[in-house]
Design goal:
Layout lengths: L1 H6 L2 E8 L7 H14 L4 E5 L7 H4 L8 E3 L2 E3 L1 E3 L5 E5 L15 H14 L5 E7 L6 H10 L4 E6 L5
Parallel strand pairs: 1-7, 1-8, 2-6, 2-7
Antiparallel strand pairs: 3-4, 5-6
Helix pairs in contact: 4-5
InterPro entries: Mrp-like_CS (IPR000808), Mrp/NBP35_ATP-bd (IPR019591), P-loop_NTPase (IPR027417), YlxH/NBP35 (IPR033756)
GO molecular function, one term: ATP-dependent FeS chaperone activity
Keywords: 4Fe-4S, ATP-binding, Iron, Iron-sulfur, Metal-binding, Nucleotide-binding
Length: 160
């Protein structure tokens, strides 16, 4: 089963969620990945914010391309030390500012493909950056990751 092999080397999965947009989920996901990397951990980020994939730009790899290998897609490796693996729909768009206007089934299929078809390798942490709210993307992500050992979730809130 492909699902077993591509996430087999991932020790902990962490979802970053919020009830609304603009609270800093992508910033927190990026900073958390950088902090874990600086602590010597092997880190991946899965950006499932399909309508607003900002992490490639935050990590200055928005012009990178995703390649195929025998076990699926090779994530983009970030930094000179290549210590952060990143997968985002931002790498699959023709132009980084292209809008993604998809209905649920197509979004769900891409999320499932990101989980099952990305060759993550050995990671201490896979951080999953989600879109705002509680939509199809969240249900798809949690359902697809259910067979794996989730570490937990970080809920980002603001006081307003």
């Amino acid at each position: 089963l492909t699902e077993r092999t591509n996430l087999a080397g991932v020790r902990h999965i962490l979802l970053v969620l919020s009830g609304k947009g603009g609270v800093g989920k992508s910033t927190l996901s990026t900073e958390l990945a950088l902090a874990l990397r600086n602590a010597g951990k092997r880190v991946g980020i899965l950006d499932v914010d399909l309508c607003g994939p900002s992490i490639p730009r935050m990590l200055r790899v928005q012009d990178s391309a995703v390649h195929q290998c025998d076990s699926g897609w090779v994530p983009v490796f970030v930094g000179q030390d290549k210590a952060i693996a990143l997968m985002s729909i931002g790498f699959l768009l023709e132009r980084p500012d292209d809008a993604v206007v998809w209905r649920g089934p197509k979004k769900n299929a891409l999320i499932k493909q990101f989980v099952t078809d990305v060759a993550w390798g050995d990671l201490d942490f896979l951080i999953v950056d989600t879109p705002p709210g509680t939509s199809d993307e969240h249900i798809s992500t949690v359902e697809t990751l259910r067979p794996y050992q989730l570490l937990g979730a970080i809920l980002v809130t603001t006081p307003q």
